[in-house]
Write a sequence for this structure.
């Protein structure tokens, strides 16, 4: 199907602005303009409005990229330079081998050396270069190439004007690793973001994989053994077979359980998101609305950055992108608004290959032995004395992909068999085409067409609304082509336990481990898919409704509970417990549309949508607080013996009883105690693993499980551990949230509202420390709500929780953080008239 090209309709003011642009551009510098409609687009021009938000206008894609690159570097050059250092495998050379790197979705998940070896292998294999050599859809479309060419010019222009020694951010001022960039740097960064869904789980295992009895640095690639491919006969075959089967089953179960637990903890503590699209039947005073609420890192390469990008007649889009992408990843244009959430698709699969015990770098396929390929990967490493040395590893690959000896930190021993990785996104630059096209989408049907024809979105759902009153949920992305039939035929025993639903084990994305001894078990090519090994996009779930759809990182099953979805198992579970956050999102939507949430009227407005998100209500408290208080009051003498400590919990009872609001606003008291209690109780497990009296019922998935079993010793012990933890830390049990959950910005302590997703709070906040100071590690980042009406421009409110700039000297390092702390929003300026009316308008024309 040919994609419809969107042509943006801009106000007449843009046309008129061309006449005044030349006067403004002649200054060639930043200027304050009070009355002009705005500059014309013949030179890249950046218009800054409140909170340092840039509105970039140009006559073509290259100019648009130039403005974006200049403005992004101005705000975050150290973060960007650090990212280019990482994707070029240079961290160990400049920062030493032992520092922490963040190559995947989560923060600081590996050491610099392992990160460098991983990216150096990709460089040596010329993965990105080969993709760039292909025409679209496999390679970037012309507009993508032009924008990235301009981005490089803009970034380098800012660096040339400032000079490395003139950078104001102390994180990289004067550093020898800050340098001009090339287009290849930007594509390497893009590719690293696209594959980050598999990096955290598998990177360490790939760069440390070595056959038994050898180091990764020195292993010969001898010819296969002359033995036959079958295993030697045994004297008591039946007895040994039974023993081996039992042993294999126990090993498989133990490995699967450990992997599931590790993946569950990683997902709970890492990136996530909420998104809610409301159609014509769910809004008041408009045709549709969208809430975008990604929970991304507050530091590093996965920071988001806000901008508006305009080429008159071609594109006019506003929102945010991962820093360093000259496009909008989450945002809106005149007709469509969209967001993404982390999906329940594992963007990789493993293949279990039987190896020759006498020569473990050979493996069996279709009854014949094949040699693994070896690859020497070397990186420069800074020694403590300041000199450089080189560290080399021999890395191994099969026909399916690289060998790994661990997944999410769980060992996968290379003994009788080895495990090879196939990453669905390793050969994906199509995501760039996806986002550039989404920026120009006309309605939600166009969004579906874009997702299907590019199949570039990596491990994300898409939620969108349009001016026509439609609300869309679509989990259409790059997915391994592991159909249910293929899984039944090819999964190993461990693979079955990881891939299939299990009420006994933590719920995680379906991870496939397929039988590598049979070439037929490789991911088959589907004629309807865009690239080899991908699942047919038409089999992937989507739903368009006029009331609402949403996602909070569970599978597609309950995008709207009135219309449950079915899909291949590889995309997630069905008829299984939903997280408390998913329940909270659904109930928030239903109650507002029905007018049963205590707020005036029915249907969403910008006021009610913002109020409900920042109410910071805890679904866990709704379900369990009253029972917990009753249990607390009934503890004999208020004393609990836990972990060798006799803890008096009686003081906790009135504190929790007084917390009637169940909220995580900054002035709430008792919320921090409950958060600690719930964390000890859940212990990283899903909601279904908690002690409930009423179990999960797939016929009532939004309200079950419920009724906490306070007779369980686990409940009493969790409360005691929470009380002990707070007392040990010197925190009063009734401390307001503002005293304990805050960020440091230039010596200022800014309280942050919200809490952990496992508490069923939509506004997710994961507190921690950065450089020894309190900060937020993950959580609500770029929050945006957009309303469409039958006519007129879209109406948008947003807040970038950590602000536009990572530079502590920038005036926009903490301004939106303070706004977020107060529960405030930025009223966005989208039209040329709105931009020109900003009292803080500043204009930079790039001659």
């Amino acid at each position: 199907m040919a994609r419809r090209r969107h042509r943006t309709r801009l106000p007449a003011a843009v046309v008129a602005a061309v006449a005044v642009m030349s006067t403004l551009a002649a200054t060639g510098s930043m200027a304050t303009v009070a009355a002009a409609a705005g500059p014309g687009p013949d030179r890249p021009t950046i218009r800054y409005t409140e909170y340092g938000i840039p509105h970039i206008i140009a006559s073509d894609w290259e100019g648009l990229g130039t403005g974006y690159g200049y403005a992004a570097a101005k705000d975050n050059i150290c973060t960007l330079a650090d990212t280019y250092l990482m994707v070029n495998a240079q961290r160990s050379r400049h920062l030493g081998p032992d520092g922490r790197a963040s190559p995947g979705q989560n923060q600081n998940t590996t050491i610099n050396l392992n990160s460098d070896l991983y990216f150096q292998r990709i460089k040596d294999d010329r993965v990105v270069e080969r993709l760039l050599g292909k025409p679209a859809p496999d390679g970037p479309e012309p507009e993508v190439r032009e924008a990235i060419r301009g981005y490089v010019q803009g970034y380098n222009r800012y660096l040339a004007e400032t000079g490395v020694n003139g950078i104001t951010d102390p994180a990289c001022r004067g550093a020898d690793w800050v340098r001009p960039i090339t287009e290849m740097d930007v594509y390497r960064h893009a590719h690293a973001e696209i594959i980050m869904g598999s990096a955290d789980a598998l990177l360490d295992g790939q760069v440390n994989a070595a056959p038994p009895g050898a180091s990764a640095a020195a292993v010969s690639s001898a010819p296969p053994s002359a033995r036959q491919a079958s295993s030697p006969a045994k004297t008591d075959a039946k007895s040994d077979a039974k023993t081996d089967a039992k042993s294999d089953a126990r090993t498989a179960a133990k490995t699967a359980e450990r992997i599931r637990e590790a993946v569950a903890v990683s997902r709970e503590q890492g990136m996530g998101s909420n998104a809610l699209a409301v159609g014509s039947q769910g809004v008041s005073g408009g045709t549709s609305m969208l809430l975008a609420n990604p929970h991304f890192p507050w530091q590093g390469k996965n920071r988001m950055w806000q901008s508006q990008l305009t080429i008159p007649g071609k594109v006019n889009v506003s929102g945010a992108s991962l820093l360093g992408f000259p496009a909008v990843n989450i945002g809106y244009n005149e007709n469509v608004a969209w967001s993404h959430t982390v999906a329940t698709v594992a963007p990789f699969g493993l293949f279990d290959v039987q190896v020759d015990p006498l020569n473990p770098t050979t493996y069996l396929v279709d009854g014949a032995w094949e040699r693994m390929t070896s690859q020497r990967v070397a990186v420069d490493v800074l020694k403590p004395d300041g000199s450089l040395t080189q560290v080399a590893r021999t890395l191994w690959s099969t026909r399916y992909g690289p060998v790994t000896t661990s997944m999410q930190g769980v060992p996968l021993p290379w003994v009788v068999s080895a495990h090879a990785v196939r990453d669905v996104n390793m050969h994906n630059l199509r995501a760039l085409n996806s986002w550039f096209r989404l920026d120009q989408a006309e309605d939600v049907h166009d969004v579906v067409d874009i997702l299907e024809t590019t199949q570039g979105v990596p491990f994300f759902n898409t939620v969108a609304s349009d001016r026509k009153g439609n609300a869309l949920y679509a989990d259409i992305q790059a997915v391994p082509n592991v159909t249910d039939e293929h899984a039944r035929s090819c999964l190993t025993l461990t693979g079955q336990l990881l891939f299939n639903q299990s009420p006994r084990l933590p719920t995680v994305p379906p991870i496939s481990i397929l039988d590598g001894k049979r070439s037929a078990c490789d991911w088959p090519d589907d004629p309807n898919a865009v690239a080899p090994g991908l699942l047919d996009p038409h089999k992937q779930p989507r739903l368009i409704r006029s009331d609402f759809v949403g996602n909070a990182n569970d599978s597609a099953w309950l995008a709207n509970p009135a219309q449950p979805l079915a899909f291949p198992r590889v995309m997630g579970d069905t008829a299984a417990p939903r997280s408390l956050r998913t329940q909270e999102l659904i109930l928030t939507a239903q109650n507002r549309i029905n007018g049963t949430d205590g707020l005036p009227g029915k249907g969403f407005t910008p006021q009610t949508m913002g109020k409900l998100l920042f109410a910071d209500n805890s679904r866990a408290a709704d379900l369990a607080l009253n029972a917990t208080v009753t249990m607390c009051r009934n503890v004999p003498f208020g004393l609990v013996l836990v972990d060798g400590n006799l803890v008096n919990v009686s003081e906790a009872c009135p504190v929790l009883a007084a917390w009637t609001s169940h909220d995580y606003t900054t002035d709430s008291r008792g919320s921090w105690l409950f958060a600690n209690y719930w964390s000890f109780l859940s212990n990283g497990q899903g909601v279904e693993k908690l002690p409930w009296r009423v179990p999960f019922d797939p016929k009532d998935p939004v309200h079950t499980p419920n009724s906490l079993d306070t007779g369980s010793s686990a409940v009493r012990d969790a409360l005691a551990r929470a009380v002990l933890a707070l007392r040990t830390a010197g925190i009063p049990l009734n401390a307001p949230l503002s005293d304990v959950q805050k960020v440091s910005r230039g010596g200022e302590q800014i309280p942050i509202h919200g809490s952990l997703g496992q508490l069923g709070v939509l506004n997710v906040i994961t507190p921690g420390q950065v450089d020894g100071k309190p900060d937020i590690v993950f959580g609500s980042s770029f929050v945006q709500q957009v309303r469409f009406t039958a006519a007129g421009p879209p109406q948008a409110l947003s807040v970038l929780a950590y602000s536009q700039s990572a530079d502590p000297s920038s005036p926009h390092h903490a301004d939106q953080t303070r706004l977020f702390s107060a529960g405030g929003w930025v009223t966005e300026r989208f039209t040329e008239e709105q931009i020109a009316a900003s009292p803080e308008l500043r204009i930079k024309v790039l001659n």
